[in-house]
Amino acid sequence: MHNRTIAELINGLQSKEFSSVELTQHFLDRIGDLNPNYNAIITVTAEQALKAAAAADERLAAGNAPAMCGIPILHKDIFCTNGVRTSCGSKMLDNFIPPYNATVVENFEQAGAVVLGKTNMDEFAMGSSNETSFYGSVQNPWDTNCVPGGSSGGSAAAVAARLAPGATATDTGGSIRQPAALCGITGLKPTYGRVSRWGMIAFASSLDQGGPMARTAEDCAIMLSCMASFDDKDSTCIDREVPDYCAALGQDVSGLRIGVPSEYFSKGLNEGTEQAVRTALAKLEEQGAELVEISLPNTGLSVPAYYVIAPAEASANLSRFDGVKYGYRCEDPKDLQDLYSRSRAEGFGEEVQRRILIGTYCLSAGYYEAYYGKAQQVRQLIQRDFEKAFETVDVIMGPTCPSPAFKFGSKGDDPVAMYLEDIYTIATNLAGLPGMSVPCGMVDNKPVGLQIIGNYFDEARILNVAHQYQQITEWHDQAPEGVAS
Amino acid sequence: MKWDTVIGLEVHVQLATKTKIFSGASTAFGAEPNTQACAIDLAMPGTLPVLNKQAVHYAVMFGLAIDAEIGKESAFERKNYFYPDLPKGYQTTQLEKPIVGRGNVEIQLADGSTKNIRIHHAHLEEDAGKSLHEGDFRHGVSGIDLNRAGTPLIEIVSEPDISSAEEAIAFAKKLHSIVTSIGICDGEMSQGSMRFDVNVSVKPSGSDTLGTRTETKNLNSFKFMEECIVKEVERQIDLIEDGGTVIQETRLYNGDTKVARSMRSKEEANDYRYFPCPDLLPVIVTDETIEELRRNLPELPDARQARFVEEYGLSDYDASVLGNDAGMASYFEIAAKTSGSAKLAANWTMGELAARLNNEDISIANSPVSADQLGGLVTRIVDNSISGKMAKEVFEGIWAGEGSADEIIEVRGLKQVSDSGALEQMVTDVLAANQEMVDDYINTDEAKRKKKLGGFMGQIMKASKGQANPQQVNQILAKKLNELL
User: Fold this and answer.
1) What CATH fold (topology level) applies to the domain B420-484?
2) A153 near A449, Cβ under 8 Å?
3) Cis omega (within 30 of 0) on the bond before A151?
4) Which of A132, A211, A330, A403 could form a disulfide with A122 if both were Cys (CB 3.0 to 4.6 A apart)?
5) Chain B residue with Cα closest to A359
6) Which among B45, B144, B281 has CB closest to A80?
7) pLDDT tens, B421-435?
8) How far is the C-alpha of A315 from the C-alpha of B451, rounded, in Å?
9) Residue B230 in 3-state DSSP?
10) Is the pLDDT assigned to residue B135 strictly greater than 70?
């Protein structure tokens, strides 16, 4: 059962081939057996899952089942789950049990999905390798000596290891697309404002966006149809009808204008990765798509701009974790100052502290204009690059990240090398555009991701393009050794 | 040496919305600690602010009341600092683009002159919670009450146009009058609904160079503010005259002990690292909304004052006392309409009632004697049912909760005797019984006779147990004695 896609599982449930309880139990068993190899899941909610599955079976039997009724999924541990610990990968929230659900969690519950548990992640979503998690790093199912990418590395590895057919994730600077690429699965970061941020623990509020991870574009379409909604609890959520993303999956790509930015194929790109991406582009060209060379001239500025804006926002967003109201509090504080400094020094990991310090510095008197002010200007330039490009092309394609999964610790000492992992993904967050990563090849037995960037609210189009690509390729069907059996 | 005082005020006004500025929790005063703080007010992870539209409208109404420019596109910033009663670790406020721009407030001074105080701007922000320190709470431990956290405020910032404590009080009272008249604040000073930060400096008389200023924060009564300004001006002048210099600092004034102390110097001042709040969109106020609010803006104190002179024939003084206080004004109008005598209703409202409320520190909104009841009392004075002296007794009865004026008059048998036949008989009897006094009266020099009337009056009142109508008795007495001459 674990080899089937969400679309296939929905058919299986509806044709009574198996029940949701059977399906849920099957995945729970797999998690029990295999998760210790990957550390992808940090909380398993077996009891609630089986209860929800039984309820789903009743609705399936009654014939009034919603879209994802009985389908098991995992939530990234950044989404608040009522009554279930939500740690955000941090010691700071190791004891935090929210009394509310994130809107995303609520939406999947409405859609009848069954939650198997919560996935590991970089602490507060800050990282590109899942090495910053308080719960230990996640192993890439393709090579357990390698990172799964981050920050949604737990969700990506769990889907790749077929511990769940789909998982939620978030993307602030590539945190859905990069781990999806490194784990050989399909992931989508929607347009900023498409998915509610209510109950999604904030890293950088103007960049954070939740999205689905699954094995196929079709499954991502099914999930996004449930996940996206207008939510009046999130002021930045956009009041716009959610289309039926599955209905848009049937269009061929002939005449599709694909923008290929020269800046995404420059120095630093792994040769094998480039080869795989070029082959994928050629494949689409064969199908009638038109490749258009474009330029996104300010791409090089995106990493520095991002590493000012995101830490600046994070420095304020993470101030609430002060040891006063909830979360970690140091032992025997001797006064208020001591309570603050030790709770935060002991509760936050190194990378989180680094980013809080960077952000605090960038916003400080005398530095604000030079850093934050300038970064916001750069952000507008980057946005304009894309706006201009979309005047002549329908989608933009390139690699998701510069190289396949790297070994643990290989970039640990060099934050800047780690930050460059996001060089192709960050710009879309700064512009607020939707982007996907789709498996498009293998290098050294490790997956390569093709990135597809769409115009604002053009999720249906990029999902369709990805789906069309997956109709003529089999990369998304590949499984890491020992996983498919 | 003569000195000029330069004062600027920052006034925090709690807006009378039912719910908080960014959450649906109640703003009602006086609840058990932390029972009116929801997940948003507690800054639980993943929660997001949603702006209260009513708070925006109230702020715009204030802008219209002081004839200010309205910020059609205003924005919120985060002001970052750590304090236990600031749950998010930042205050959401406005800095660069406040909702209310430059405006003007005209104040009246005791000598009858007026002065214009310019308003620099007014902005929307959220209130913090309260820290309950030793004494208020438990020895060695501080308590936090977050009920107030997130209560909407406007902070009104004046230009340094104020030159004395008297002007500062007049300005503060005028603001109080405006915000209560337009109904955007309940004006309850004792509950912290209006709080003042006072910036004070002194300079040699006539000098163009401003002296170094100090800021005294969080004064919550007119009286404390007046004391504080007088003391601070004195302190600064003494300091300079003794060869010292004023240092820029933030100070606190304890109204109970009358002691002011330094809280922090400029060097210790926080770097608040303001930056735009990414969780909130710019606030757009349309011309239609502004016009609608302008059309429905309740009467302003100056207009009301003029109307009281015009409509009720009140003196300028009475009109200014009654017209400046929204509570007094509406109380007076009800009493005046119920009784039909504006002059008497005004006297009673400003006299007996105001004195009694002031003595017992009760606001007019919570007066034990309602405006209708006072109107009923005045009605009985007007129709001669009771004398002014009886009225005081009846007033005490109403205050004590014994019922309406009529009920008390009935129960206590206080009805004034105004039947002229009965009164004539009473006068005749008293004159007959006091022949010596009558002779004395007749023999007294004409100019001094008037003084002698009091003696007869006392006898008659005694005989009538105080119920004789004094005006009528006076007339009858004068007539009868004249007949004897």
Assistant:
1) Arc Repressor Mutant, subunit A (1.10.10)
2) no
3) yes
4) A132
5) B273
6) B45
7) 888 888 888 888 888
8) 84
9) helix
10) no
A76 carries an active-site annotation: yes
Mutation to test the B interface, candidates A75, A318, A325, most B Cβ within 10 Å: A325
The answer, yes or no, to whether residue A296 has pLDDT greater than 90, is yes
Half-sphere CA count of A467, side-chain side, radius 13 A: 21
In contact, B211 and B203? CB cutoff 8 Å: yes
Find which of A78, A106, A313, A358 to mutate to test the B interface (most B CBs within 10 Å of its CB): A313
Q: Provide the residue count of chain A.
A: 485
What is the rounded CA–CA span in Å between residue B179 and residue B63? 10
ipTM of the complex: 0.96
Which residues make Cβ contacts (< 8 Å) with residue A435, sequence separation at least 6? A171, A177, A188, A189, A425, A428, A451, A452, A453, A454, A462
Of residues A19, A20, A76, A315, which has the active-site annotation? A76
- What are the residue ranges spanned by the domains of chain B? 3-290, 299-412, 420-484
Digit-coded pLDDT (tens) for B304-321:
999 999 999 999 999 999
As a whole number of angstroms, the distance between CA B159 and CA B403 comes to: 50
Residue B485 has pLDDT above 80, yes or no: no
Beta strands in A83-208 (DSSP E): 114-119, 166-171, 186-189
Residue in A closest to B51 by C-alpha: A235
Task: Tell me the per-residue pLDDT of A451-477, one tens digit each, with 9 for 90 and over.
Answer: 999 999 999 999 999 999 999 999 999
Mean pLDDT score, B69-92: 97
Compute the average pLDDT of residues B347-376: 93
Angstrom distance (rounded) from CA A378 to CA A95: 39
* Beta-strand runs (E) in B220-365: 249-254, 259-265, 275-276, 283-284
Confidence tier at A138 by pLDDT (50, 70, 90) = very high
Return residue ranges of chain A for CATH 3.90.1300.10. Answer: 6-258+392-414+427-477
Interface of B with A in 273-292 (CB under 8 A): 273-275, 278-281
SS3 state at A141 = coil
How large is the C-alpha radius of gyration of chain A?
21
How far apart CA A227 and CA A214 sit, in angstroms, is: 13
* Best of B42, B44, B80 to mutate (most A CBs within 10 Å, chain A): B44
pTM (predicted TM-score): 0.90
CATH number of A6-258+392-414+427-477: 3.90.1300.10
CA distance B397 to B413: 13
Q: What per-residue confidence (pLDDT) applies to B412? A: 83
Taking the C-alpha atoms of residue B374 and residue B464, their distance in angstroms, rounded to an integer, is 26
Closest residue by Cα to residue A170 from A261, A109, A105: A105
Phi/psi zone of residue A89: left (φ > 0), alpha (ψ -120 to 50 degrees), beta? left
Rounded Cα gap, residues B136 and A307, in angstroms: 45
Structure tokens at B392: 């005081």
Residue B139 has pLDDT above 70, yes or no: no
Count of H helices and E strands in chain B? 16, 15
Q: Do B273 and A364 touch (CB under 8 A)?
A: yes
Whether B44 and A326 lie within 8 Å, measured CB to CB: yes
User: Which chain A residue shows the shortest CA-CA distance from B145?
Assistant: A325
* DSSP structure string for A267-335: TT--HHHHHHHHHHHHHHHHTT-EEEEE--TTGGGHHHHHHHHHHHHHHHHGGG-SSSSSS---SS-SS
* Average pLDDT along chain A: 96
Chain-chain contact of B46 with A364 (C-beta, under 8 angstroms): no
* pLDDT at residue number B138: 63
Alpha-carbon distance of A328 to A342, in angstroms, equals: 10
Give the one of A199, A320, A360 whose C-beta lies nearest to B43's C-beta: A320
Q: What is the pLDDT of residue A485?
A: 81
Active site residue A334: no
Those residues with Cβ within 8 angstroms of residue A78's Cβ, 6 or more apart along the chain or in another chain: A86, A88, A89, A121, A125, A170, A200, A201
